[in-house]
Amino acid sequence: NADVMQNPRHLVRRRGQEARLRCSPMKGHSHVYWYRQLPEEGLKFMVYLQKENIIDESGMPKERFSAEFPKEGPSILRIQQVVRGDSAAYFCASSPDRSNYGYTFGSGTRLTVV
Amino acid sequence: QQQVKQSPQSLIVQKGGISIINCAYENTAFDYFPWYQQFPGKGPALLIAIRPDVSEKKEGRFTISFNKSAKQFSLHIMDSQPGDSATYFCAASSNRQNTDKLIFGTGTRLQVFP
């Protein structure tokens, strides 16, 4: 897999529903980062994970948001009880190690809360 | 102190001209300064990056100038082309932390007219 794969590309949820965003890192990459981009703004760091470990979640809202990167399978960003303010583009990036050279972003999931 | 300030917000350049985007930071622990290019509906793609031990880095038509004492860095796009029309983000990170999270600027929307 040459690319960071995110799905779905577009997700529409009603207020109060749950949103699950998936990220499959590039082959050989064991570090995953999630960022959120609000309209007309830059990307904001949310969380950094390695396989089965959360390394830095300093950018995650304290409630309703969680992330995991299991031993097998994609990384999941989960948003419970979505509100309109959660509408944004969510990007994940992966890298092979802790250096910041091989930081590759996926195409994002655009979440719309109606 | 974690902010990266970027200007201008938007930029219009004629084909063949030079596009210049500026960024400033406060945190002296930052030691990695990448620039990302983002097209509509896509994720950010790494364009060029610099570390503070050099004052300039050039790759093709793209040059980063870095002024450590002023805590500023800029992207210069020479011979700008319509295909360069995109949003550009500067970013910064520190390898001294236990994370490689990137702090992004707010972006510059570049339009290059033929």
- Largest interface, counted by CB within 8 Å of the partner chain's CB: A-B, 28 and 24 residues
- What letter string, H or E per element, gives the SSE order of chain A? EEEEEEEEEEE
The count of strands of chain B amounts to 11
Mean pLDDT across all residues of chain A, rounded? Answer: 92
Quaternary structure annotation: heterodimer
Provide mean pLDDT of chain B, rounded.
93
Contiguous uncertain segments of 5+ residues of chain B: none
Give me some keywords for this one:
heterodimer; A: 114 residues; mainly beta; 7-stranded mixed β-sheet; 4-stranded antiparallel β-sheet; 49% strand; globular; B: 114 residues; 5-stranded antiparallel β-sheet
3D architecture notes:
The complex is a heterodimer of chains A (114) and B (114). By secondary structure, chain A is mainly β. In chain A, 0% of the residues lie in helices and 49% in strands. Chain A contains no helices and 11 strands. Chain A has strands at residues 5-7, 10-13, 19-24, 31-37, 43-50, 53-56, 65-68, 75-79, 88-95, 104-105, 109-113. In chain A, strands 2, 4, 5, 6, 9, 10 and 11 form a 7-stranded mixed β-sheet that branches. Chain A has a 4-stranded antiparallel β-sheet with strand order 1-3-8-7, with no helix packed on it. The mean pLDDT of chain A is 92. Chain B is an all-beta fold and 114 residues long. Chain B is built from no helices and 11 strands. In chain B, the strands form 2 sheets. In chain B, strands 2, 4, 5, 9, 10 and 11 form a 6-stranded mixed β-sheet that branches. Chain B has a 5-stranded antiparallel β-sheet with strand order 1-3-8-7-6, with no helix packed on it. In chain B, a hairpin with a 2-residue loop joins strand 6 (56-59) and strand 7 (62-67). Classes of the chains: A mainly beta (114), B mainly beta (114). At the A-B interface, strand 4, strand 5, strand 9 and strand 10 of A face strand 5 and strand 10 of B.
